[in-house]
């Protein structure tokens, strides 16, 4: 009886199908939603619009994913870059936008604090905001270093400084020095 080896192969980047793409989206759906929710683009951008833009970007680059990083890291990077591009575009087209608070919620509620934190992160320079969002999304320092082209030490330092800066900004905004 001949020796038969059974191997499971994953499709090469040129052989990926729509079914593979759908499976990848399913595996990363929660993270994609979270990345899209993190970036404010103005009222005309619904969550569906954001997700659609990210999925189009993922589809366009899906055949080029070579597996040099984890799928999760690659998906996060494409989604984040897409949202940053959309933000730049929105910033150019929207000079100012008033922020209306539709609820009568206390300023001390968790939802309000989260909304405020996201607004503060939006004011940070791009490199800092991208790094802190990745950290808040649960990526390790190593993964963030790979995604941003930095060293682990530089990422750790950037996160520590950004956390201190956000804390100071939050305290200043809420008069809680």
Q: What would you note in describing this structure?
A:
With about 180 residues, the protein is mainly α. The protein has two domains: about 15-100, Rna Polymerase Sigma Factor, Chain: A; about 105-175, Orthogonal Bundle (Arc Repressor Mutant, subunit A), CATH 1.10.10. It is about 65% helix and about 0% strand. The protein has eight helices and no strands. The chain has helices at about 20-25, 30-40, 45-60, 70-95, 110-125, 125-135, 140-150, 150-175. Helix 6 (about 125-135) packs across helix 8 (about 150-175) and helix 7 packs across helix 8. It is globular. It starts with 17 loop residues before the first helix and ends with a helix. Mean pLDDT is about 80; it is low at about 1-10 and about 95-105.
């Amino acid at each position: 009886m001949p020796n038969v080896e059974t191997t499971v192969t994953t499709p090469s980047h040129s052989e990926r199908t729509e079914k593979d793409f759908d499976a990848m989206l399913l595996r990363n759906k929660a993270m994609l939603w979270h990345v899209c929710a993190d970036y404010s683009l103005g009222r005309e951008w619904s969550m569906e619009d954001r997700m659609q833009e990210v999925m189009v970007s993922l589809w366009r680059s899906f055949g080029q994913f070579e597996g040099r990083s984890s799928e999760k890291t690659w998906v996060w990077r494409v989604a984040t870059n897409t949202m940053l591009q959309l933000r730049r575009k929105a910033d150019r087209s929207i000079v100012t936008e008033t922020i209306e608070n539709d609820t009568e919620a206390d300023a001390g509620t968790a939802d309000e604090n989260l909304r405020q934190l996201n607004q503060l992160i939006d004011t940070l320079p791009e490199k800092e905001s991208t790094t802190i969002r990745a950290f808040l999304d649960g990526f390790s320092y190593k993964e963030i270093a790979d995604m941003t082209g930095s060293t682990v030490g530089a990422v750790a330092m950037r996160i520590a400084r950004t956390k201190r800066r956000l804390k100071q900004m939050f305290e200043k905004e809420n008069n809680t020095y």
